[in-house]
Design goal:
By secondary structure, the chain is an alpha+beta fold. The chain contains ten helices and 30 strands. InterPro entries: ATPase_NBD.
């Protein structure tokens, strides 16, 4: 696959995929002509690697002796059994989000077992920042050593598309599953595509299998397992590394039982589950089915919903390819179940690229190099703000009514001005502007805030606040405006100013954000940005 060169100064584009369980980094020179030139960092530091070449490093960090930064923490494969490590921290960044039908109920259980924890004095944002700082510093060292050398050529991820193809990309990671469907509109001279329908996802990745495994161990061995040090049972331990191998291989062979080394002293253990002499925990294929199936079933349910949404949007069956990427996307068992559910009729091809775990980070580098992106995007939710509207008798409630002091007209306070609609198709840099006014007197500060809201419901009303939640705020500041240019009026013995301004939303698809901007007298008096690329989580 050829990459279009961009004119200008030479650059190094770095793509980072920070996941719940693993993190990957890729890089490419802006002068490179081909997708094959995108390289992955495979020489992650640390003694706990099972092989020298690994595409991703564990998303975990430890603070030796409890020393917080500026002391240098251990991270990734540097974290050894026995260290107090912090894993799956990415999920804690979303701890305030309401639970929904597709989310993983074992997350709360896991937090009670000590897995989803934070060090004293550090927030989830702090811990993630500490970890990514180490990734950043190691990336700089790697680039300094390798950028002028002949680096390893990575097998390209190549798919052959034709205009009109509907492609569903299913990113199955450690903590989340994200789905987006695209319609290919052009393949030459460069690939172009548009989002066919709004993406969906859930907080239910392959780490849910680990949590189910822990729960099974607690049920079978009780305190004998629960009281073991995390160095023997936590992420990075020999026990969990062996289970990781079992997970990856499940479905590839007809093997029916699996042994994992663990030294413990259970009370009257069932020989079918623990060999005291050999110190081996035994699980069978039924156990693995019980761990895998809830995750796989939710993935299949999301795929079905996305297929249905795409059909409604296109008016016909347009989807003909599903691409599985991410760490769990490489699971043979998931692939088999996906083929059974969607590929058996021959209409949909299920594809797993080589090194599916690295596909997302490779795509991140390609996005930075070529600017490859959808020509249109679908918004995942409604965005707007509260704005008083003229009162309508029989529609509006009297308890929400107020008299506008400038006009003397009756208004309702329970009304929304929606600037962007859920499911709406927007081209890059689409704008929508709304005129607004505010009434001030000389005793008031010339600053105010306007809260921005979102709503995930398919249909919203302008006369209702149901289902809305705050996502941002614009601070408007009239300090540097010329008050003499605004209309004035004496109201109740006070000189009032009618401060006219406009609020504009810019659908910046290229940057992946919604930009809200307030202007008055030709100058910007307030602005903020909201990320819209995050998929809707059901």
């Amino acid at each position: 696959m050829s990459i279009k060169k961009e004119k200008g100064a030479h650059r190094i584009i770095v793509g980072v995929d920070y996941g719940t369980t693993y993190t990957g980094v890729s890089y490419v020179s802006s002068t490179s002509p081909d997708l094959r030139d995108i390289k992955h960092i495979c020489n992650w530091p640390g003694p706990t690697k099972e092989t020298e070449i690994v595409f991703k490093a564990p998303s975990r960090i430890a603070y030796p002796d409890g020393d917080l930064p500026p002391a240098v923490p251990k991270w990734g494969y540097e974290v050894q059994p026995g260290m107090t490590a912090y894993s799956w921290t990415k999920l804690l960044l979303d701890s305030d989000t309401l639970w929904t039908q597709y989310d993983d109920s074992t997350l709360e259980y896991a937090s009670q077992t000590g897995i989803l924890q934070l060090p004293p004095g550090r927030t989830a944002i702090d811990v993630v920042a500490d970890y990514l700082t180490q990734v950043y510093q190691f990336t700089l060292k790697t680039l300094a050593k390798q950028i002028t050398e002949q680096a390893l050529r990575i097998t390209p991820i190549e798919f052959w598309f034709t205009p009109g193809d509907g492609v569903l990309v299913c990113d199955c990671g450690g903590g989340t599953v994200d789905l987006t469907t695209f319609l290919v509109t052009q393949t030459s001279p460069v690939l172009t595509f548009e989002e066919l329908c709004a993406g969906i996802g859930c907080k239910f990745g392959s780490s849910a299998i680990d949590r189910s495994f822990y729960r099974l161990m607690f049920q079978r061995f009780g305190s004998a397992f629960e009281n073991l040090s995390p160095r023997y049972t936590g992420p990075g331990s020999s026990f969990m590394n062996k289970f990781e191998i079992v997970k990856r291989g499940f479905g590839q062979t007809p093997q029916t039982s699996f042994e994992l080394p663990l030294k413990m002293k259970p009370c009257r253990p069932d020989p079918a589950h623990y060999d005291e002499e050999e110190r081996l925990v035994t699980i069978d294929e039924n156990d693995l089915h019980a761990m895998f199936n809830p995750v796989v079933d939710k993935v299949l349910s999301l795929v079905r919903q996305q297929i249905d949404d795409a059909k409604v949007e296109a008016g016909k069956d347009v989807l003909n390819r599903i691409i599985l990427v991410g760490g769990f996307g490489d699971s043979e068992y998931l692939h088999q179940e996906m083929v059974k559910a969607f590929g058996s009729n021959g209409k949909i091809t299920i594809t797993v690229p080589n090194y599916a775990q690295a596909a997302i980070v490779q795509g991140a580098a390609l996005r930075g190099l070529q600017g490859l992106q959808p020509t249109t995007r679908r918004c995942r939710r409604h965005y707007g703000f509260k704005l008083g509207m003229p009162f309508v008798k029989g529609v509006d409630d009297e308890s929400d009514a107020y008299i506008d002091e400038w006009t003397g007209l009756k208004y309702t306070a329970r009304s929304m001005k929606w600037m962007i609609s859920k499911g709406g198709e927007y081209k890059p840099n689409y704008t929508h502007t709304v005129p607004i006014c505010a009434i001030y007197d000389a005793s008031q500060r010339l600053q105010s805030s306007q809260t921005l809201y979102a709503c995930d419901r398919t249909n919203v009303q302008t006369r209702s606040f149901e289902g809305i939640y705050p996502v941002g705020e614009i601070i408007t500041d009239f300090t540097n405006t010329d008050l003499s240019r605004f209309e004035t009026k004496v109201i109740d013995g006070k000189l009032k100013y009618r401060l006219d301004y406009e609020t504009k939303v810019i659908f910046g698809a290229e940057e992946g954000v919604l930009k809200f901007e307030s202007t008055s007298q030709g100058r910007t008096i307030g602005q903020t940005s909201i990320r819209f690329k995050t998929v809707k989580f059901y």
